């Protein structure tokens, strides 16, 4: 065994086994020691994959160092693309897109897709993926430009546009608190697919401003509510993974997905394991959540969400005793 093999196996073992299950009270307390959270984050292996051996696919990557992990990467089917079925034999890169399936709560397979912001030459591939996977919505976590750097190519039409074999029509646009919601119809041949596009605009790259945490929670709730409604209306077969992208598809995308899963874990289990969530995501796509500040931000957002949940015997503060000796009850959740 080579040293690199040993290092890889130990990193993989860490990602499979590591966790830090916190009660709601512990979640509140951990934010008082951000350096401890930062150190915990820095010990998590990034699990970045090596370059894939697919000729011609590097020009479909936004960043040279960000590749999709092989075992979970999304592969485009020829029927989703505007190409003859045998084209993939001559050019294997036609089926390539820098995107990975991400597990959800309790390891639910393919709950999300994390991907990079489309490039000029991958917009058709992006919409082909949305069609192929029957995604109920896209969550966009980046502006098109930040500090004069292009972060994502404009891939939404003002009204209607054809991308490869997919016709994309924006029916309505609604401004919300920190994000926009677009109602979109996709059409290919005689089939249609309805979906929504959520564009969160208030979060700069590599940073994690706590002032946006409430807006992020509102977005998470809105996306989760729409996913459930979409699944009830169209059925599981026609309501696939939620696609999330920022620029590279690992930082802010990772924060959104971790917050979404963490909120569900708090609802279901009355506790949360952010460390375990990040490890699970990095097994699926290397580098998910890029900085210690983003890791702290996820804990901050989850702490805010926890305060919105009803108290339980395990999470409520100890009851105060009145002068008459009767225990007084907390009438409202902690805030």
TrEMBL record:
Active site as annotated: 246 (phosphocysteine intermediate)
Stretches assigned to coiled coil: none
Top-level EC class as recorded in UniProt: hydrolase
Binding site for substrate: 205, 246-252, 290
GO term, biological process aspect, one: signal transduction
SMART domains: PTPc (SM00194), PTPc_motif (SM00404)
GO molecular function: protein kinase binding; protein tyrosine phosphatase activity
PANTHER family: PROTEIN-TYROSINE-PHOSPHATASE
Protein name in UniProt: protein-tyrosine-phosphatase
Species, as recorded: Plectus sambesii
């Amino acid at each position: 065994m080579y040293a690199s093999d040993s290092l890889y196996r130990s990193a993989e073992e860490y990602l499979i086994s590591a966790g830090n299950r916190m009660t709601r009270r512990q979640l509140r307390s951990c934010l008082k020691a951000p350096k401890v959270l930062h150190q915990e984050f820095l010990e998590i292996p990034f699990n970045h994959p090596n370059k894939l051996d697919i000729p011609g696919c590097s020009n479909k990557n936004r960043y040279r160092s960000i590749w999709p992990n092989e075992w979970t990467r999304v592969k485009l089917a020829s029927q989703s693309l505007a190409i003859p079925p045998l084209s993939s034999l001559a050019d294997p890169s036609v089926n390539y897109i820098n995107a990975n399936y991400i597990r959800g709560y309790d390891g639910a397979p393919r709950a999300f897709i994390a991907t990079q912001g489309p490039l000029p030459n991958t917009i058709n591939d992006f919409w082909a993926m949305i069609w192929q996977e029957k995604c109920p919505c896209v969550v966009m976590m980046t502006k098109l430009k930040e500090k004069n750097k292009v972060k994502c190519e404009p891939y939404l039409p003002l009204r209607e546009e054809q991308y490869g074999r997919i016709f994309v029509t924006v029916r309505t646009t609604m401004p919300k608190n920190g994000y926009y919601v677009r109602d979109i119809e996709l059409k290919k041949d005689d089939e249609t697919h309805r979906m929504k596009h959520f564009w969160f605009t208030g979060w700069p790259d590599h940073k994690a401003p706590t002032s946006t945490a409430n807006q992020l929670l509102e977005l998470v709730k809105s996306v989760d509510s729409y996913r459930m409604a979409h699944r009830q209306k169209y059925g599981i077969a026609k309501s696939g993974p939620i696609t999330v992208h920022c620029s590279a598809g690992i930082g802010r995308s990772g924060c959104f997905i971790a917050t979404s899963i963490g909120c569900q874990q708090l609802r279901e289990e009355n506790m949360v394991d952010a460390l375990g969530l990040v490890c699970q995501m990095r097994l699926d796509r290397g580098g998910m959540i890029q900085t210690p500040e983003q890791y702290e931000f996820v804990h901050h957002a989850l702490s805010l969400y926890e305060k919105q949940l009803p108290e339980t015997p395990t999470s409520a503060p100890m009851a105060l005793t009145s002068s008459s000796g009767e225990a007084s009850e907390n009438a409202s959740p902690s805030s």
